[in-house]
Amino acid sequence: MKLTADPVGRWLEPSGPESDVVVSTRVRLARNLADVPFAAKAGPADQERVVSSLRWALQEIGCLEQGRFFDDEQLAEPRGSCLLERHLVSPDFLSTKARRGLYVGEDEAVSLMINEEDHVRFQVLASGLDFAEAFGRAAVLDEKLESQLAYAFSPEFGFLTACPTNLGTALRASVMVHLPALVMTREIEKVLRGALHIGLAVRGLFGEGTETRGNYFQISNQRTLGQSESEIIETVTEVCRQLIEYERKAREYLMRNLRTEVEDKVFRSLAILKGARILTSSEATNLLATVRLGIVLGLINEVTLAEVNRLTVLVRPANLQVVLAATLDGAERDERRATLVRETLVRLRS
Hints:
- The chain is α+β, with helices and mostly antiparallel strands.
- The chain folds into two domains: 10-251, Creatine Kinase, Chain A, domain 2; 259-349.
- 46% of the residues lie in helices and 16% in strands.
- It is built from twelve helices and ten strands.
- The chain has helices spanning 44-60, 79-85, 91-95, 131-146, 180-184, 188-197, 229-257, 259-275, 281-296, 305-314, 317-324, 330-349; strands at 22-31, 67-71, 101-105, 110-114, 120-127, 153-154, 158-159, 171-178, 200-203, 216-221.
- The strands form two sheets. An eight-stranded antiparallel beta sheet has the order 2-3-4-5-1-8-10-9, with helices on one face.
- Helix 8 packs across helix 9 (281-296) and helix 9 packs antiparallel against helix 10 (305-314).
- The longest helix is centred in the C-terminal third of the chain and has 29 residues, at 229-257.
- It is globular, with a radius of gyration of 21 Å.
- Mean pLDDT is 92; it is low at 1-5.
- InterPro entries: Arg_Kinase, ATP-guanido_PTrfase, ATP-guanido_PTrfase_AS, ATP-guanido_PTrfase_cat, Gln_synth/guanido_kin_cat_dom.
- Residues 21-250 form the Phosphagen kinase C-terminal domain.
- Keywords: ATP-binding, Kinase, Nucleotide-binding, Transferase.
- One of its GO terms (biological process) is phosphocreatine biosynthetic process.
- It is an enzyme of class 2 (transferase).
């Protein structure tokens, strides 16, 4: 099976702090241009102006030499969904009928959406729990863009955004965490209620309005007005560290009291992945997530955490078609997905 050279973001490498629990950290900033109507009121000419202005600014600050710019026509399927599955764009960005543009850095750690809900939303992803890296890079990009563009800003309300909940810093700080032990010990609802109680949001694998798969959860702030960037990040970090502690204690409990059951679940999942001839996207994600747990518990050493993270992305429907350079129906995807996983696991053992 031949794959294209389409890379998977380096932020998926488990090199960051606490990467056994925290897959990634994300910082997203929303901005609007001062002299253009907001997206809801912008006409085609306004939308084109925003795209042109942002593309020009990216060129001026040297970003286009370090990544790729996608025009509207280059975001057709399956490429658009592929980018969503890689956490580089939002569902709203794909569904909007506005004139769009997208910038993606060469390492896929940086992406910038043009004409989503706001004129521009850009994000930085980092491996593990690393807000210093993610926010540091986002702040540098923000300063460079502001040197070329005039932002909509109010001394009273801060950065002006389409949605009032984003006023102020317009910063969304989030972490993607893997909490299989808390799910297995049935503690997950109680733990996540604590995050909701202090005003954080808990979302599925691909953000707002998406389902949870593989026991992956996104935790983020909801309020931006009246809080500084450091306060937002500190709150999310504190809750994340609590989740890490709870998840690790749950893993210890499982290995101490239910080791045989855990081993059976882990090795059964690995065996299915090695032998299956048909795998749906959901099934593959859940099985790989269980194998991931087996790796961090020290039960499996023939597969690396980095490879499981990579496969978790490549088995998704659009990514599968992009990396195989083939248009596939549902049945064909399920067969080719199983082949990809089997061949990858065989290669890792050899």
